[in-house]
Amino acid sequence: MEENKDFKDKNDLEIVFSKAVKAGKRIYYFDVKKNRRGELFLAITESKKKVGDDESQVSFEKHKIFLYKEDFEKFANGLSEVTSFIDRVNKENGIERRQSEE
Fold first, then answer.
1. What's the CATH number where 58 sits?
2. Which domain holds residue 57?
3. pLDDT averaged over the chain?
4. pLDDT attached to residue 71
5. Which residues of the chain have pLDDT under 70?
6. Which residues, 6 or more positions from 5, have their beta carbon under 8 angstroms from its beta carbon?
7. Which residues sit opposite 66 in a β-bridge?
8. Residue 98: inside a domain, yes or no?
9. What percent of the chain has pLDDT over 70?
């Protein structure tokens, strides 16, 4: 499931736009934020649900990456290159891409 949010509230000027992508026990948040100089950048957050041994305690482990305008093209090219490599090697080994569960 994917979710788009367009933030126009004056009280929430830091986050301009957000997209959440659910993937199993993980949720990826793509947040467009504005810095103090008014420049936009991308904050990618991976949030993974962690359940305690007794299953009554739930927490979330989070990891963040910040991407700035000058790095967008390099990042997109690198991501495209590695995903193409994975797809090619998996295809050579007879492994098909799994479809999303959601």
1. 3.10.450.700
2. 2-69
3. 87
4. 98
5. 1-13, 99-102
6. 17, 18, 19, 20
7. 43
8. no
9. 83
